[in-house]
Amino acid sequence: MGRENLTWVSEFVLLGLSGDRQTQAGLFVLFGAAYLLTLLGNGLILVLIRLDPRLQLPMYFFLGNLSVVDICYTSSGVPQMLAHFLLEKKTISSARCGTQHFFSLALGGTEFLLLAAMAYDRYVAVCDPLRYAAVMGLQLCAGLAAVSWLVGLANAAVETAVTVRLPTCGRHVLNHVACETLALVRLACVDVTLNQVVIVASSVVVLLAPCCLVALSYARIVAAVLRIRSSGGRRKAFGTCASHLTVVSMSYGMALVTYMQPRSTASAEQDKVVVLFYAVVTPMLNPLIYSLRNKEIKAALTRVLTRSSQSKR
């Protein structure tokens, strides 16, 4: 196809989840409630980490970064989705589509990398507890967080650059709830080999490599815990990792099931489920998991509430 026949569109139409108005109203209430819970839960964790001196630890430094990622990630797509549930014309400009695409990729990649950094933190805490404070100093924690953010941003910049340049030859209907990579690539009317290579490389950098680091960290953690003679000691050691391991299993599990299957078996509906899982479900559940299964978070909440009530007297 000659370049003179290639065209780019100025806006896209998002088909969303359903065309039925009643269903859309129900989805608006459901996802709106989930969005509010996400903001409240992650916001509460950030406030507790800021106000309680006992949470000034490496684990909670990373948890604070994770909460910021979750708030930004869900805010990059859910408000647009909620608006479309109420609108007859579900359009998004190509510029806004590219911006949404970039931030969802950047924040999603950063989250996977932060989870790997948190796994290393748990490894040091369990396997080398006497040197934990010396090893997990402020400089290392800040460096790991910075690398997570920078790699996530750089990866998103490359993938967005090769995706938004694709001409669609007039096709502008996206069978999706958001501007997602595979949905945009499906509309292209040119060869997408470069995009496929970039998608695979991106998956290795922000998914497979961090997943291998997490697996290695937990393999060493399990080996160290099994050497502990007392059952109480083993339970305490595993307890320090329970919340993180739950979040890791949820996040990496869905990603690996999705991206390790043949592309020929994937469907647009399946892609929608994956995006909704990471944009709505995961950010909402993460603070619940860390608060319900973490005694220090619950104790910090009690202390903050107690101080607040005493200051009002």
From TrEMBL:
Membrane topology: Multi-pass membrane protein
UniProt key word Transmembrane helix: yes
Keywords: Cell membrane, G-protein coupled receptor, Membrane, Olfaction, Receptor, Sensory transduction, Transducer, Transmembrane, Transmembrane helix
Keyword set includes Transmembrane helix: yes
Major site of localization recorded for this protein: membrane
PANTHER family named among the record's database cross-references: OLFACTORY RECEPTOR
Entry's transmembrane regions: 25-48, 60-82, 102-120, 132-151, 197-216, 237-261, 273-292
A GO CC term attached to the entry: plasma membrane
Xref: InterPro entries: GPCR_Rhodpsn (IPR000276), GPCR_Rhodpsn_7TM (IPR017452), Olfact_rcpt (IPR000725)
Protein name: Olfactory receptor
Family that this chain belongs to: Belongs to the G-protein coupled receptor 1 family.
Described function: Putative odorant or sperm cell receptor.
GO molecular function: G protein-coupled receptor activity; olfactory receptor activity
Subcellular location: Cell membrane
Residue stretches making up the G-protein coupled receptors family 1 profile domain: 41-290
Family annotation (Pfam families): 7tm_4
